[in-house]
Structures are given as structure tokens and as C-alpha cells.
Design brief:
Chain lengths: 253, 391, 535
């Protein structure tokens, strides 16, 4: 039997019929979504559409009431916790930039590096050349080489966003979940971020949640619009933004 | 501990601290034993015992700082681990009394004879051997911390919830050890010790040796803490303290880290308790009182959490103040002062003595660097690193 | 009330003695019997007791009770017998005439254990005819306990005349007890007796049935089945008893925890000085009672009613002060709040210790809170009952307050979304202060109630703080109903564990169970779910 045949799907990420409710409120309702390997996908949708909850489900923070969540075609993510899912190769950037504020930029990246994360490994850790090289490389990519010894807490908002993307790069996951990467950024920074994500997408599968339509347009990838916890429309940005139901959701009411 | 961990852990502050503790550990016992009694430089025996107590408290404070200062786990039950270590040592000392007890029973301690025990309870077996008792000093607190932590951290009990259940833990132990039928001497606890390893616990030489040993234990505990916090594991601990959930998404198994550091800390507290008991001559259930554990936390807060040196310093300073005030006319006001200390430190000095000093030191260093950088810039020589750090 | 009975009995005895002085003496078998007391022979004494007790002579009671107390003096030479009163005056037992002094040759009539039982039975039967209902009841009960054969006649006589229902029932029980142990009672009588005791169904009835010795087969069989049925009914009652104790403990826990449910549960502030607010409430009660004792003793029964609002105001004002001066600087830093408020608790304790002294202060029960009543087989004390009622009332008022008043609405708004509330024009810092004051005030009220059942000392609060936190955490933070259910669950669980494990081990077991429970459900019984709370 071919190895490929044991996989339920060829998709990197496969969600089918997922439901979550909090005290009777249906946050996610029969959500189905597929992300192919190497793809970049933009997720849009009004507030409360379930975007962040979907990411919580994929990263193991929230357990769905029912439904299938498969990673890499074989792994059932609903049965794993956050640590295990991160170890499998799913990285996440939060909506509000979350970096380790009382540690230096360099140490933030060091912590994110995809090396031995066990207690023993970190206790007896001694830096290697390969590690410092990959940190240098990430620092350069996110333009924070100058700030490497500064405390992360002293960075500007945009720099923190970038540092967090840098941490994702250092983590080198198979799948990146990026929640509102350009919130609070200037136009120039937004443009640079789009470029950066496109660069990252050359080697990684990426899912981006974003409100900023200019940014989504600039990414130029397939767009999924969520509403009330379910997929409302899917297609290119032009298809989706001309979809009557999408217009109704965004402009109506 | 490997050499690279040791060298990494010794910065200037740590070296100075260790030198001072080592000097005390050597000079104080020597002065007590060699100089004639009453001479100006001679440290009287009662002071050796008193300071030995402070050193034990300093070890306990280090243990608390390791988990609270670096990993954000506020344990209000560390007094329990301290007391368990103390009881393990106390049990050894009780067995050493032998036939010199009031009832002269070679096996049973006096309180068991008094309570009509016919034979030694099974959990007292082996405590006549020092090595076994010494092992239990580590194992019993360590095991309790491991089991407790395994349950708590796995279920993600954090913050004040964890603090409250650690308090409940020590409270439950307090109630248990008060019971006569628990087999640990009820509310009188264990006392009237005679010998430790064949030496009279009251003798000057023994007291001096215990003091020196306590200093050595403090040095070792400090080195262990330093090498833990200066390793990458230390960075992970701080990451967990500041953003626990973020650390999980980076693939760190938070509960394992917490469990490791909590258990290590409990073992250190146990050692502190074991050294404490022969020097004060008694261990009783009041050591489990929740108030004791919280008081130990305030030593750390006063000295500065997350600084290790501050924790040790805080323990000594607060306890010195306690001895000073409770022995004089001011005794009725001590609790007012202790209470005010809790309030004022959290409100006005959240970084503690050492933490505030460090910030001030860094600040003035940066100012000097900035001055130097601007002077250098005028000379037309640029030093990018300096300019960077001055921002 | 029960506690007053012996005193009343004593008054009655005294009046009987007085009656005895006023009546002339009879001649005949009574006098002969009296003389037998002087023989110093146990069987003669026993005979004399029987005759005197059934003589109907008004002197009978003073004589027998003097015999019981060792005040019956007999002169074996003159065969004269004297009753010495408690006041030192003496009378001639046969005639009732006062005598100047008892001769030196007279000595107290001796008793042995068997005779003491006869004396008890005789006293029982003598008082069965008393005009006072409580005395008759007491007498019937003492006959039931002694079940002396000699009392049967007296019981039957009393039973025929008795009109009071409860005394009649007690007499019936006494009669049954006597018949059960009477060797020559008929089988039918014994079976009836067993049935009566079965209906009584308490520990004493069971003791009689188990200890009655050899009996005809049918009686033994009936007794066995009666014992079985009593046992199961006793088991039910002991469950009811435990449940009552549990409810009572639960109400105490709830009372101590409600205030905390507000400060910790609603505001998220860890107030380790919460117990001291309870203590301040208790001391307020003490001060109120002191003032009433010295100035207006007539108002004592109203002392608690006066103390409740005062305690609320005092503790509430201190709470507002604490919030404004300490806690508001520590919002969002729960661990620091914990330490600062612990320090505060030390200061408050020491302040009270300095003002009122380190020892327990006396806080009295008003008359309506003392005493007890029987419900089936269990005894319910009024103070516990009132505390339960009071606790539920406080809980209901608090719920209503949160739901229907403007402050309640603002409090809920601020807890749910502080920034939104602020932008709606709610003065959030005022709401914080008032909410904290409310929680503290309720703790003060709890102190008033707890002063009725606990020692009022500076350490009063400390004994409640851990329990209160356990209740709130167990019930689920931010949910008042959770606190209610949590408190009663823990109270009842504690009281059902106590008989099995003992008081201390039971408490330890509860603590361990809660620790394990929190591991299982870190957010308590009634936890809120959703993204917001996990953030």
C-alpha cells in the first residue's frame, strides 16, 4: 500500500464540520476549511466571525465539541495540547503582539528556536554556532539586528509585531498562523510585512487573519470569508468582495 | 553541574555574595572557638546559633525566589517543605537520644512511651541512620512537591488559585501534625535532642560546625539557583512567568518546567529545615502554620524577587529586625511593623532592596555611557554598541 | 426550656416540703415503715421505701428525697427517724413535727446501688402526681429509665388521671418499660410493651429492648424486629442529624464566604484581611453589648439587631478605606494584593489585640437565641437555626441588591467591561470602593452572627479565611449561587465525614478533596466558559 493512501487528505490543514459553543453561544458552526501544502490563505470576516477561535482550535487552546481537525493529513489535532501541536510544526502569532517583554530581542528568538525544548535540554544547553547564525539571519530578516540586545518590552508596536513574526521564523514551523500582523502599522510597515509574508510563503504554508483589505489585496492569495463561525465565501479577493452575502455582512445591518 | 554552567552563573554580584557568605562561614565559627570568651571580636555561642537560623531562612528564601521570582509560582506553603525537612532531621535526632530519654526506652522516643505506643511506627524505621534521614530530608519534601505539582501544574492551576491551594496544603499538614496519633509528637513536636553524629548538639564546637555547614549549604543552594536561572532553562522560566500561554505555543511543556523547579525548590527548603532543627533544638507543628510561609515570601519581596541575592539578604534583614524588635520594649509593635512591611514593600518598593538598587545602578551606568557616547561623538569617533545601549 | 427544668424541680420540692410541715401526721403502717429505716438493714430499708412511696402520705416525698441525698437521719436506739433540711432545720419523719436538734447518736440511713434504684423509682412515682406538667414529665421519664417494678402502681394511677398528651405518652413508655422487665407480666402485656417501645424508637428504647434478658420466644422475636426497626429509624435520624449539622456548618461557611465572593469572586481582589472584617464585626457586637449592659440593660435582647447595621457600617467603612488607600494601587497584580492584604490582616489583628486584649471577650446570646427544641430524635439549638435563617436572608438581600439596584447594575457593568462602563459615565473607582466596602460590610455582618457561636478573639478571622477561600474557589469564582452550593456541599460533606474519620481527619480529608477537585476543575463547580475568561 502506498504511504499516501493512509493519509485521509493531501491537505496541510483540514477542518471539517467543526462546532464550538461557549455557554450556548455558537462561536464556530459547521466550519470546513482546507489548506494545501505551500499555500498562503487570507481569512477575513467581521468581529465575532470566529477567526481567533478557529486559530485556538487549530493550536489546541480550545477543544471543539465536534468535527475533524487534521494536520498534514494524519494527525488529529483535537486530541493534542498546545505544546504537542507546536512541536508538530504549527506556529502562531497572536492578535495582540505577545513577546517576552523582560528579555532581550535575541533571547526571544533563542527561546523560539526549533531545538530541544525539554527541561534537561535547556538546563544543560550551551550555545552553538549554528544557533547563533540562524538567530542572526532572522534578525536581519525582521530588521532588528541593531536592537538585538534591547529588551523586547522597549520595542515599538510595529517592531514587536515583527519580532513575533521573527519568532515564528526561528521556530521554523510547517504551518504558520498569523493573526492580524499589520494592526497598528504604518503603510510602509504594512507593505514590508506583506513582502515578508510572501517571502516566508516560499518555504512555508501560511494562514493570515487580517481586516486590512489593502494588505489582503497586496498578498494576492485565495481569501476565505468567515461569518458567525462558518465559511461564507471563498475565492480571490475580487470574487469574495463582490459576493452579495459578504457585502451584506460587512455593510448591511 | 558542568563547568560551563558554573562559569556562566558567576557574575560579579554573585561572586561578591559568595565571598561574603564564605567569609562568614569561616570567620564566625573560628572567632567563636579560638578567641577567648568575652573578648571584643569573639562571637558568643548564642549569636552563632541565632545567625545559623538566619542562614537557614536565607536558604528557604532562595528556594522561594527561584519559583516566585523566576517562574511566577507564588507558593504560600513552602514552610511545609521546610518543616518536613526539619521533621526528618528531628526524627534522626530523636532516635539518637536512645536510653537518655526520661523513660529510658532504647527504641521509642519519650512521647511514644507517654502515648502508650507498643512499637515504633513503620515510618520511623531507618531514621536511626544519618544517611537515611539525610536522604529523607530531600525525598519527603521533594516527593510531596512532585505529587502536588504534578496534579496542580498539569491541570493548569495558576496564580492566586495555586497560592491558595498551597496554603490549604500546609494548613492540612498543620492539622495532621497536631494530632497525637499521627506519630510525630503532636503539638509538642520533637525536642530534647542530645547528639548529632555523635556530637553533643549543645556543644560550642557542634554549633560552630552547624553554622559553617549552613553557610556551605547556602553557597551550594545559591550556586544551584544561579546555574538554573542563568541557563537557557532560566530564560524559559522567565518566559513562562511573563507569558505562559505564549511559551506553550512555542512548544515548551510548561508543566514539566514548573514541576522541575518546584520540586528542586522544595528539596532546598527541606535542607534548610534540616539544618534549622539542630540549631534551634525543636521542631513542632507551628512551623506548618500558613503565616510562616507567607512571612517567608515577604523576606523575598523585601530583598527583591528575581534577584536571589536579594532573597537571602531579605531573609537576614527581616529576621534580624524581628529579633531586635521582639526582644525589647517594642515587642507589642512588631506585628504592626511586619504588617506595614508587607503593605509598604508591595506598594512602594515592588522590586525590593536589591532590585531597586540594580535598576538605579543600570540607570546610572546608562547615563555614564550616554555621556561617554556623546563625548565620543564630538570627537568624531562613533561607537555603535554604546550608542545602541544608550537609547 | 430543658435547661431550666432542674431548677423548677427544686422549687417544687421545696414547696412540697412546706406542705408537709402544715399537715397532721397519720398513724399506722406508715409509722412502722419509718421505724424500719432505723434498723440499718438494706432489706428493711427497701421495704420501708416501698411502703412510704405508696402511702400517699405528704411526708413521703421529703423523706425519700432526704434518703436520696443522705439527709435522712436514723437513731437506732430510739428508732426515731429525722429529716434534716438543706437549711439545717430538722423534722421528725414520722410526725412531721419540727425538732430542735437531731441526737448525736443518729446517723444517715445508708444506701447501696440496688436501693438507690428503688429510691429513684420511688421519687419518680411520687412526683408523677405533681401539679406541674414539666415535673410530671420528668418523673415519668425517670421512671422509664429506672423501670422499677414498684413504680407500676403509681404509673397506672397517674396514667388514669393524666390529661396532658406528652406526659401521657411518657407514662405509657414508662409503663411499657416496667412491664418489659417485670418477670410475672403476661406475654400479651410484654408484646404491647415491645410495640410501645418500638413506636418510641430512640436510643433508650433500644437499650431497654436489647438489655431485657430472657423472654418468651414470641416476645424475643417481637423485640428483635423492634430493635431492627429502631436501628433503621435511628440511622435515618442520625442522617438527618448530620444533615442538620452540615446545613448549620454550611451556613457558617456561607456567611463567612459571601463577602469574599464579592471581593474575590466579583472584583477579583484577593483580600487576605477578609477574616479580620469578620472579626471587626464580632467586636462591634461586643462593644454594642457592653454599652447595653452598662446603660440600657433592658435592650439586651435587641443587641444583635442593633449590632448588625453597625457592624456593616464599621466593617464597610474600613473596607472602603482599605480599597482607597491600598488595593486600588494594586489592581491587576493579584499576588501583590495578596501579600499587602495579609500584612493588613496582621495590623488589624494587632490593633484589636492592643485595644481589647488578647483574650476571648464575652458576647452573650439574647434570650431568643438561647435554648433548643426537639424535632423527632434530634435537638436543634435556636442560635444555629437563627444563623441559618439569617445567612439565607443576607444571601437573598445581596442577590436582590445586585440585580435590582443601581449600584448592583454598575457593579456588574464594571466587572464585565471596565472600559466600556467608564465610557458610559460610570465612576468606576467609586464603584470599586463601594463594591469592596459592600463585601467587607457583609463580612462584618457575618461577624455579628459568628460571635454567637465562636470565641470572640483577635484570631477569630484567621480560622475562617482558608475555609472561605475554599468555598469560593470550590463554588466557582464570580458566581454567588456557586458560593451557596459550595458552602452547603462542604458543610454537609464535612459533617458526614466527621463520624467516620473524626473531626480533624475529616477536615484534612475535605481540604485534600478540594485540592484534588481544583486540579480537576480549576475554575470551580460553576465556572464561566468562553474566550473572555481564558484570556
Amino acid at each position: 500500500m502506498n504511504v499516501m493512501d493512509t493519509r485521509a487528505t493531501s491537505a496541510m490543514l483540514y477542518l471539517d464540520g467543526v462546532h464550538v459553543s461557549f455557554d450556548g453561544f455558537h462561536a464556530i458552526n459547521n466550519l470546513s476549511l482546507t489548506l494545501e501544502p505551500g499555500e498562503m490563505r487570507a481569512i477575513i470576516g467581521p468581529n465575532g466571525a470566529g477567526k481567533t477561535t478557529m486559530m485556538d482550535i487549530i493550536t489546541g487552546k480550545t477543544k471543539p465539541d465536534e468535527g475533524v481537525v487534521l494536520f498534514d493529513g494524519v494527525t488529529d489535532l483535537t486530541r493534542l495540547d498546545e505544546t504537542r501541536i507546536a512541536e508538530l510544526g504549527i506556529g502562531r502569532k497572536f492578535q495582540k503582539p505577545t513577546v517576552f517583554e523582560s528579555q532581550t530581542v535575541q533571547d526571544n528568538l533563542l527561546l523560539a528556536l526549533n531545538v530541544d525544548h525539554s527541561v534537561k535540554g535547556t538546563l544543560f544547553w550551551r550555545g552553538s554556532k549554528a544557533e547563533s547564525e540562524s538567530i542572526d539571519k532572522v534578525l536581519e530578516t525582521i530588521r532588528l539586528t541593531e536592537a538585538r540586545n534591547r529588551l523586547a518590552g522597549s520595542l515599538s508596536h510595529g517592531q514587536k509585531q515583527w519580532l513575533e513574526i521573527g519568532m515564528l521564523l526561528a521556530q521554523d514551523p510547517k504551518l504558520l498562523l498569523v493573526d492580524e500582523p499589520v494592526a497598528g502599522m504604518t503603510d510602509v510597515e504594512t507593505h514590508l510585512t506583506a513582502e515578508l509574508l510572501k517571502e516566508i510563503n516560499k518555504t512555508h504554508t501560511v494562514m493570515v487573519v487580517e481586516h486590512d483589505m489593502t494588505f489582503v489585496r497586496e498578498l494576492g492569495v485565495k481569501v476565505t470569508c468567515l461569518h458567525e463561525g462558518t465559511v461564507l465565501a471563498e475565492g480571490t479577493i475580487d470574487q469574495v468582495s463582490s459576493n452579495e452575502r459578504v457585502i451584506e455582512v460587512y455593510l448591511g445591518r | 553541574m558542568t563547568p560551563h554552567m558554573l562559569t556562566r552563573s558567576l557574575d560579579r554580584g554573585a561572586t561578591i555574595f559568595l565571598a561574603i557568605v564564605a567569609a562568614c562561614g569561616i570567620l564566625i565559627p573560628l572567632s567563636n572557638l579560638l578567641l577567648p570568651a568575652g573578648s571584643f571580636l569573639q562571637v558568643p555561642t548564642y549569636l552563632v546559633a541565632l545567625w545559623g537560623k538566619y542562614v537557614c531562612y536565607a536558604i528557604l528564601a532562595l528556594a522561594i525566589d527561584l519559583i516566585w521570582g523566576y517562574c511566577g509560582i507564588l507558593s504560600l506553603g513552602h514552610g511545609a517543605f521546610f518543616a518536613l525537612g526539619g521533621y526528618a532531621m528531628g526524627m534522626y535526632l530523636m532516635r539518637q537520644i536512645g536510653t537518655r530519654g526520661v523513660y529510658g526506652n532504647p527504641i521509642l522516643p519519650d512521647f511514644m512511651v507517654f502515648l502508650n505506643y507498643s512499637k515504633l511506627p513503620w515510618y520511623w524505621y531507618g531514621f536511626d541512620m544519618f544517611w537515611f534521614a539525610a536522604l529523607m530530608v530531600l525525598v519527603v519534601p521533594g516527593l510531596l512537591a512532585f505529587c502536588f505539582g504534578w496534579l496542580a501544574f498539569r491541570s493548569r492551576v495558576t496564580g492566586v488559585y495555586l497560592s491558595i491551594i498551597t496554603q490549604a496544603m500546609t494548613y492540612a499538614l498543620l492539622l495532621a501534625f497536631f494530632r497525637n496519633d499521627f506519630g510525630f509528637g503532636g503539638n509538642n513536636g520533637l525536642t530534647d535532642f542530645k547528639d548529632i553524629l555523635g556530637f553533643n548538639v549543645q556543644a560550642e564546637g557542634t554549633r560552630a560546625a552547624l553554622f559553617a555547614l549552613s553557610c556551605l549549604a547556602l553557597i551550594l543552594a545559591f550556586l544551584i539557583c544561579r546555574s538554573v536561572v542563568s541557563s537557557k532553562l532560566g530564560k524559559v522560566l522567565i518566559a513562562i512567568r511573563d507569558a505562559e500561554s505564549r511559551s506553550r505555543f512555542l512548544g515548551y511543556r510548561v508543566e514539566s518546567y514548573k514541576l522541575f523547579v518546584f520540586t528542586l525548590s522544595a528539596c532546598m527548603a527541606g535542607v534548610a529545615g534540616a539544618l534549622y532543627v539542630p540549631q534551634v533544638g525543636i521542631i513542632n507543628p507551628s512551623e506548618f502554620a500558613p503565616g510562616n510561609s507567607i512571612e517567608a515570601v515577604i523576606w523575598v519581596a523585601v530583598g527583591g524577587r528575581g534577584t536571589l541575592i536579594g532573597a537571602a539578604l531579605g531573609a537576614v534583614v527581616v529576621n534580624y529586625a524581628k529579633t531586635f524588635f521582639t526582644s525589647g520594649m517594642l515587642a507589642p509593635y512588631w506585628l504592626f511593623m511586619l504588617g506595614a512591611l508587607f503593605i509598604l514593600v508591595t506598594l512602594l518598593l515592588p522590586k525590593g532592596i536589591v532590585g531597586t538598587f540594580n535598576s538605579w545602578w543600570d540607570q546610572s551606568k546608562e547615563n555614564r555611557a550616554a555621556t561617554a557616547a556623546s563625548a565620543a561623538a564630538e570627537d568624531g569617533v562613533t561607537e555603535p554598541d554604546m550608542a545602541e545601549s544608550a537609547q | 426550656m430543658l435547661v431550666n427544668l432542674p431548677a423548677r424541680l427544686r422549687t417544687l420540692l421545696l414547696s412540697l416540703v412546706l406542705i408537709a410541715f402544715a399537715l397532721p401526721a397519720f398513724a399506722g403502717p406508715f409509722e412502722d415503715a419509718i421505724a424500719k429505716f432505723a434498723n440499718d438493714d438494706y432489706s428493711d430499708t427497701e421495704e420501708a421505701i416501698g411502703v412510704v412511696a405508696s402511702s400517699g402520705n405528704p411526708l413521703a416525698f421529703p423523706i425519700i428525697s432526704a434518703l436520696q441525698d443522705g439527709r435522712l437521719m436514723a437513731d437506732s436506739d430510739s428508732k426515731k427517724v429525722y429529716v434534716t433540711g438543706a437549711d439545717g432545720k430538722s423534722i421528725d419523719a414520722a410526725t412531721g413535727q419540727p425538732v430542735d436538734s437531731v441526737p448525736d447518736s443518729a446517723s444517715a440511713v445508708r444506701l447501696n446501688n440496688r436501693l438507690r434504684r428503688s429510691v429513684d423509682a420511688a421519687i419518680g412515682s411520687l412526683t408523677l402526681q405533681s401539679p406541674d406538667i414539666a415535673t410530671r414529665l420528668q418523673a415519668a421519664q425517670s421512671v422509664f429509665k429506672s423501670h422499677e417494678e414498684t413504680a407500676l402502681e403509681a404509673v397506672d394511677g397517674a396514667l388514669a388521671k393524666e390529661t396532658n398528651k406528652s406526659v401521657k405518652a411518657a407514662l405509657g413508655d414508662a409503663r411499657a418499660a416496667i412491664l418489659l422487665f417485670k418477670p410475672d407480666a403476661s406475654e400479651v402485656e410484654k408484646l404491647e410493651a415491645v410495640a410501645t417501645l418500638k413506636a418510641r424508637g430512640d436510643q433508650e428504647a433500644m437499650a431497654l429492648l436489647t438489655g431485657m434478658g430472657d423472654q418468651p420466644a414470641s416476645v424475643a422475636k417481637a423485640a428483635a424486629s423492634a430493635i431492627g426497626s429502631i436501628q433503621s429509624s435511628l440511622a435515618v435520624w442520625s442522617t438527618v442529624q448530620n444533615a442538620w449539622y452540615g446545613l448549620s456548618l454550611g451556613s457558617v461557611l456561607l456567611l463567612a464566604a459571601i463577602g469574599l465572593a464579592i471581593t474575590f469572586g466579583v472584583m477579583g481582589v484577593i483580600n487576605m484581611a477578609h477574616g479580620e472584617m469578620v472579626m471587626i464585626g464580632a467586636y462591634t457586637t461586643f462593644v454594642v453589648q457592653e454599652v447595653i449592659r452598662t446603660r440600657y440593660p433592658g435592650l439586651f435582647d435587641y443587641s444583635l439587631l442593633i449590632a448588625v447595621p453597625l457592624a456593616f457600617l464599621v466593617a464597610g467603612a474600613i473596607g472602603v478605606l482599605i480599597e482607597r488607600s491600598i488595593i486600588r494601587f494594586l489592581y491587576g497584580r493579584p499576588l501583590e494584593t495578596l501579600l499587602a492584604t495579609w500584612g493588613l490582616s496582621l495590623v488589624l489583628q494587632q490593633a484589636v489585640r492592643t485595644m481589647f486584649g488578647p483574650t476571648n471577650r464575652e458576647v452573650g446570646n439574647p434570650s431568643w437565641m438561647s435554648g433548643a427544641f426537639e424535632l423527632g430524635q434530634i435537638t436543634i439549638t435556636y442560635n444555629r437555626l437563627w444563623i441559618l435563617v439569617f445567612t439565607l436572608a443576607v444571601f437573598a438581600v445581596l442577590l436582590a441588591m445586585l440585580r435590582y439596584t443601581a449600584l448592583g447594575l454598575e457593579m456588574r457593568a464594571v466587572t464585565q467591561n471596565r472600559r466600556m462602563a467608564a465610557s458610559m459615565g460610570i465612576a468606576t473607582s467609586r464603584v470599586d470602593a463601594l463594591t469592596f466596602g459592600l463585601g467587607s460590610g457583609i463580612a462584618g455582618i457575618a461577624g455579628v452572627a459568628l460571635s454567637q457561636i465562636d470565641n470572640v478573639s483577635p484570631n477569630l478571622g484567621q480560622s475562617y479565611i482558608i475555609d472561605s477561600f475554599m468555598v469560593v474557589v470550590f463554588g466557582g469564582v464570580g458566581n454567588l449561587w456557586g458560593t451557596l452550593v459550595g458552602a452547603f456541599t462542604l458543610g454537609i460533606a464535612n459533617k458526614f465525614l466527621e463520624p467516620v474519620a473524626g473531626a480533624v481527619l475529616g477536615k484534612i480529608a475535605i481540604l485534600v478533596l478540594i485540592i484534588l477537585f481544583i486540579q480537576k476543575r480549576p475554575r470551580g463547580l460553576f465556572a464561566l466558559k468562553g474566550r473572555a475568561v481564558e484570556a
